[in-house]
Amino acid sequence: MSIAENISHLRNEIPPIVTLIAVSKTKPVADIREAYEYGQRDFGENKVQELVEKHPMLPGDIRWHMIGHLQTNKVKQIVPFIHMIHAVDSLKLLSVINAEGEKVNRVINCLLQIYIASEETKFGLSPEEAAQLIESSLSGPFNHVRICGLMGMATYTDKMEQVKREFGVLKECFARFSEKYFKGQETFRELSMGMSGDYRLAIETGSTMVRIGSLIFGSRR
Ligand SMILES: *Cc1c(COP(=O)(O)O)cnc(C)c1O
After folding, report:
1. Å from CA of 140 to ligand 1 middle
2. What are phi and psi of 58, to 5 degrees?
3. What's the 210 CA to ligand 1 centre distance in angstroms?
4. How far apart are CA 205 and CA 166, in angstroms?
5. Which of 56, 67, 169, 170 can pair with 152 through a Cys bridge, CB separation 3.0 to 4.6 Å?
6. Does the predicted TM-score (pTM) go above 0.90?
7. Sign of the C-alpha dihedral, residues 101, 102, 107, 113?
């Protein structure tokens, strides 16, 4: 099946309020262009190097999402054009993004990555650490970052009960933070969860952004 057909199938299934992010990591610019021509505008990459290489070769109205772990010394390279950074996992990183955002006069959309999986290799904050980070950022004040919500990755397993439980933890955390720190504010509204293998479950649990790679572009080597 073609990239356009894959996107078409997903769009038919995903509610319009959920943003479909096409994860194009390792895929050539030609594949991204094919998706773009079919109307896709949100693309996700997990490496600064790939973002920096691909972004100038593609139309300026693409919304680029950095979905991978981000090192503070690389923030500068993506801040001039990035739409959203999904995996903020320290106050240090948030403050560097803020400082670089100030230099280019942009407010950078950020999500805090929460650790929900039982695997040990995944990055992220515990809910308690995330709460502390939000409190510090509010008293910062950080005027060049906008905390738009939370991101998480479930354990890579076919035990759907477990995945569902993990998404539930993230959703609960999102609801708690909305109430406690962002009441009456519309900026804190994104829950980025769900990939090719678990996006249906994620949407059932309240996801507002799904990050889908292989179901659109085929498997990666
Ligand atoms: C690669 C990646 C995805 C997409 O994975 P697929 O299983 O190919 O859909 C989603 N989120 C993150 C953080 C990724 O690194």
Report:
1. 32
2. -125, 165
3. 9
4. 10
5. 170
6. yes
7. positive
Distance 93 CA to ligand 1 centre (A): 22
**What would the mean pLDDT of 132-150 be, rounded to a whole number?**
94
Residue 25 Cα to ligand 1 middle (Å): 8
Question: Is the confidence at residue 121, as pLDDT, over 70?
Answer: no
Cβ–Cβ < 8 Å for 59, 78: no
Q: Which atom of ligand 1 is nearest to the CA of 196?
A: 9
Strands 63-66 and 19-23, how do they pair? unpaired
CB under 6 Å to ligand 1: residues?
23, 25, 46, 67-68, 153, 195-197, 211-215
Beta bridge partners of 85: 66, 110
- Residue 151 alpha carbon, nearest atom of ligand 1: 13
Q: Give the residue, by CA position, lying nearest to ligand 1 atom 13.
A: 67
What pLDDT, in 10s, does the model give residues 18-75? Answer: 999 999 999 999 999 999 999 999 999 999 999 999 999 999 999 999 999 999 999 9
The average pLDDT across 181-202 equals 96
Looking at ligand 1, which residue's alpha carbon is closest to its atom 6? 213
